[in-house]
Amino acid sequence: MNVVKVMVLGLDGATFRIIRPLVAAGKLPNLGRLMQEGAWGILQSIIPPHTAAAWPTLMTGKHPGNHGLFGFDQPSLGGYGGAARLVTSQAIAGQTIFDYASRAGLRVAAIRVPMTYPAWPINGVMISGYPSPEGGSSYTYPRELCRTIPAMRDPAAARDPDERKQILLEEIARTGEIGLQILRNDRYDLFMLVFQQTDIAHHWYWRYIDKASPVYTEEEAARYGDVIELCYRAIDAQIGELLQFTDSDTSVLIVSDHGGRVSASNYFHINTWLRQEGLLALRRKPSLQSRAYDLRSRLLPKHIRTQLKRVIAATMPDKISARAEDFYFNLEDVNWAQTRAFRFNVSAEVQGIMLNVAGRQPSGIVKPGAEFERLRDDIIARLRRLRVPGTDQPLVEYIYTREELYGPQVGTRVSDIIFGLHPDYRGGDGVSGPIFAPLRHEELLGALAGWHDAEGILLAAGPRFVRGGVTITDASLLSMGPTVLHCLDMPIPDVMDGTILEPLFDPALVGATTRSPQRGGDGTALRASESPFTGADHFELSQEEAESIKGRLRSLGYL
């Protein structure tokens, strides 16, 4: 049997909120055994705790400011929030653990790791993960593998929760079988496989298990309350099969990119708050677009408006989509010549505010330099004073300038202010009306039933790691890339922001940690130019591929 040296298994969005009770009940025997024999603990995600940003952090050992991905799309930061461009694996700046290992002559398999579409050449096999489109051949390397290995099915195609459940369980089995097929055919030094289905199950089925959800009902819980558990149990069974390709010398890491929880049930309309604070202005005379917006708001429920927006974004040219985006957010009614700050969303979990800077935005009025810094500090101070309505709890849980979070080299690739809200609140798009408002009932019935938090999972077992069920604290997703390379006896590149997670290792066996100089700390893309295994031609998504990816993203509430 082919034995793997380092096996990394990812459970997207997995959380100990689900795992620990199931382990205690004996329902996850493989995860339970790893927790008992090895080490485990919460794996703190990055900001934003989001699939598109977090898995590249694991792959590169860099925070998003250096690897370049903050979400599934990249908006124009020199505008006001119009249509964004989808990103692909080619947007990841620098080398990944797969590239480093390949260049060292090690055999590598990367199976359904998110944000690896299109698959690129490595010394082994790559099968792209979420949100790869259906069809084509670019989701595998070598390309001919697409003849025998199917693309991921999209649960969004399901007509109802029962069919979605069936697709989830089938895809768990198919993902595991693909991994086994790859393992049977060759020997690998580094094998990584990700199960996406835990995150999908959270998004759609969390409302059936959590009474904190405003749309929880006992009747529906009785019918669908077992789906998340069934997904975890099915994945645990697949983990047991994959572990057959390990032995006492294998380092096994089970990780997630972020955690999961019930979705926020209230909006904080950031632009409305900025307007109240005198930082965002509306036109004195409502525009034709504004009057149409008001009529649209009265006649169409928000979930119908959201579906209409998504159809336009998926089917119309970028210029039309950008104008539709402005209309959707009622941005046509903003007086940009008198607006000093506006919402610029980072992700559903993390909010952002952009200043309307002269020379950067089309109608910018804030002068760069001292005026910019004073205004930004003032907005941060005001946000820190906000409280959850009716309580003394801070509305803003954390807040940073982009330079504090990502360093000065990040430039303007993310908003000027970045902050996270109380778990029961998410950013809203309104520019008028109440600052705080509940999500509509219909919004919580779909992919917004569950969402992300920053507390992922880490389980580790192997000859180098501490043993006996040791609980690891202060583990960070940033540490995983360096830790994987260390398990492969490779030096840690200087460009990695993380360092190896030393508490995970037996002190007698840690060994010397070296860092090797690598170019690219400024975030420039290196893979095609520096790796002999990444010489793929420049890749552009076709219209069909883009529409397929957008459909997958919309099905989980990402677009």
Could you characterize the architecture of this molecule?
- It is a single chain.
- This protein has two domains: 6-76 and 96-249 and 257-262 and 452-467 and 489-555, Alkaline Phosphatase, subunit A; 266-282 and 334-438, Gyrase A, domain 2 (2-Layer Sandwich), CATH 3.30.1360.
- The strands form six sheets. Strands 1, 2, 5, 6, 7, 8, 9, 19, 20 and 21 form a ten-stranded mixed sheet that branches. The chain has a four-stranded antiparallel sheet with strand order 12-13-15-14.
- The protein has 559 residues and is of the alpha/beta class.
- The protein is built from 18 helices and 23 strands.
Structure summary:
By secondary structure, this protein is an alpha/beta fold.
Mean residue pLDDT: 88
CATH class (first level) name of the largest domain: Alpha Beta
* Count of separate structural domains: 2
> Percent range for helical residues?
25-40%
Distance between the termini: 44 Å
CATH architect. name of the largest domain: 3-Layer(aba) Sandwich
The largest β sheet comes out as:
10 strands, mixed
| Share in β-strands | 15-25%
Number of strands: 23
Count of helical regions: 18
CATH fold-level topology of the largest domain: Alkaline Phosphatase, subunit A
Structural class: alpha/beta
Low-confidence stretches: 317-329, 519-535
